[in-house]
């Protein structure tokens, strides 16, 4: 209800604004289009708070352009059709920047819609800042000048993950369990390709795709995994689909390993509890025990919201916007897009680069494992007493993958 009221208030305020160009103190509105209802609502609620938290932190004198960032939260119900309605509402009210990340099916629809809008409406262009949708096609065959991805895509994550698995001789039989949409299909595809190249001795003993955000009991899937003899599961599941999966694994007595993307995301730490210690891995571009600025921000976020901050791409997006707007001396999306291409900037994980050829951020990746929190790795998500401890860091050049993008520039 609180979020709904904020959305209504923000939408009303939008009606009073129009297109704006760079001046210190100017307000730059970013429409956040992601789920605030349904099974994935906890993830969306966490992420909109994250955007609002860092929009305040990086506004004004805290960014080189001197602009103020304001987040407009729009509930898309995890639906591509509803996302297009929200995109239209935001554009009609003058918003020139959008962000989304939960669901590559939604991301694909938004990329197409933004492309069409910008082609048909010169002077009213929109930039799409992708915080978490990781289908590699978005920076390959479907690459767009107006789309910039700040997460690492599935090909990058599987490159790092399988580089680690290559040397783990206990991995002999792998089961692929993923959500039945483009992201899940790509996880399965790149897992098979990478394992065939790096560990041809590993058997794929099972593969399943299940409906996105609809399964409430994963016990039948765990039974199939156990029956297959798999010692390892690779899954790109997120939100309730991962939380309920690991809960079923704990209850069903599955003793194999899980290689995941999103163990640290809302709900999954609690579902794991002390189960899965030493057996559940995550590959990501940040983790809970990085220390430095990230450690300070995580502590501040937890004190303020009684929740955990994990979507580090939020920081990348706001830092990149401040840098590119200062470079362009404008908030005009046409000029900002040109400044974003090839931009290098310092973030919490070192220097990162928005690769010009495909608009895929190049950055280090980290492999972590679920274990008891200790002095070396003290941060405990959802107050479980457990944490994701660093096992291996992969520099950007190791995690980087080639692109087939043939960018069409205006």
Helix and strand topology:
Elements (H helix, E strand, L loop, with lengths): L1 H13 L12 E8 L6 H17 L10 E8 L4 H13 L4 E4 L3 H17 L6 E4 L16 E3 L4 H12 L7 E7 L2 H17 L4 E8 L8 H10 L3 E3 L5 H13 L4 E4 L7 H5 L7 E5 L7 H14 L7 H16 L4 H8 L3 E4 L2 E5 L6 E2 L2 E8 L13 E9 L1 H4 L11
Parallel strand pairs: 1-2, 1-3, 3-4, 4-5, 6-7, 6-8, 8-9, 9-10
Antiparallel strand pairs: 10-14, 11-12, 12-13, 14-15
Helix pairs in contact: 3-4, 5-6, 7-8, 11-12
Short structural summary:
The protein is an alpha/beta fold.
Q: Order of strands across the widest beta sheet?
A: 7-6-8-9-10-14-15
Pairing-aware structural class of the strands and helices? alpha/beta
N-C termini distance: 42 Å
Helix share of residues?
A: 25-40%
Tell me about the largest β-sheet.
7 strands, mixed
Number of strands: 15
| Total domains | 2
CATH superfamily membership of the largest domain, which one? Answer: Response regulator
For the record, the CATH architecture of the largest domain stands as 3-Layer(aba) Sandwich
Order of helices and strands: HEHEHEHEEHEHEHEHEHEHHHEEEEEH
């Amino acid at each position: 209800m609180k979020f709904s009221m904020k959305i209504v208030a923000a939408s009303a305020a939008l009606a009073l604004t129009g297109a704006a160009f760079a001046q210190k103190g100017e307000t730059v509105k970013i429409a956040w289009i992601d789920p605030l209802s349904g099974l994935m609502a906890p993830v969306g609620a966490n992420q909109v708070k994250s955007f609002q938290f860092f929009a305040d932190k990086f506004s004004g004198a805290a960014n080189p352009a001197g602009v103020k960032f304001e987040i407009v939260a729009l509930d898309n119900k995890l639906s591509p059709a509803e996302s297009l309605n929200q995109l239209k509402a935001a554009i009609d009210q003058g918003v020139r920047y959008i962000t989304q990340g939960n669901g590559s099916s939604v991301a694909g629809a938004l990329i197409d819609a933004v492309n069409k809008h910008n082609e048909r409406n010169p002077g009213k262009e929109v930039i799409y800042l992708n915080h978490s949708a990781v289908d590699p096609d978005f920076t390959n065959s479907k690459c767009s000048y107006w789309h910039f991805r700040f997460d690492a895509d599935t090909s990058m994550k599987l490159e790092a993950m399988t580089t680690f698995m290559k040397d783990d001789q206990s991995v002999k039989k792998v089961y692929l369990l993923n959500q039945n949409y483009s992201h899940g299909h790509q996880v399965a595809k790149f897992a098979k390709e990478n394992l065939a190249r790096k560990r041809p001795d590993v058997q794929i003993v099972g593969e399943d795709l299940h409906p996105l955000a609809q399964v409430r009991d994963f016990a039948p899937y765990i039974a199939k995994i156990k029956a297959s003899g798999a010692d390892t599961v690779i899954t790109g599941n997120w939100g309730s689909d991962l939380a309920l999966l690991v809960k079923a694994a704990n209850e069903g007595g599955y003793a194999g390993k899980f290689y995941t993307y999103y163990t640290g995301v809302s709900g999954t730490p609690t579902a794991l509890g002390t189960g899965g210690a030493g057996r559940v891995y995550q590959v990501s571009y940040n983790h809970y025990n990085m220390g430095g600025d990230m450690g300070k921000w995580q502590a501040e976020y937890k004190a303020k919201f009684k929740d955990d901050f994990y979507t580090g791409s939020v920081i990348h997006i706001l830092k990149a916007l401040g840098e590119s707007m200062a470079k362009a001396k404008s908030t005009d999306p046409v000029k900002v897009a040109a400044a974003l291409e090839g931009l290098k900037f310092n973030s919490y994980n070192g220097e990162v680069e928005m690769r010009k050829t495909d608009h895929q951020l190049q950055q280090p990746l980290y492999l972590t494992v679920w274990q008891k929190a200790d002095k070396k790795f003290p941060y405990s998500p959802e107050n479980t007493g457990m944490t994701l401890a660093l096992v291996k860091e992969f520099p950007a050049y190791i995690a980087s993958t080639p692109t087939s993008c043939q960018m069409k520039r205006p």
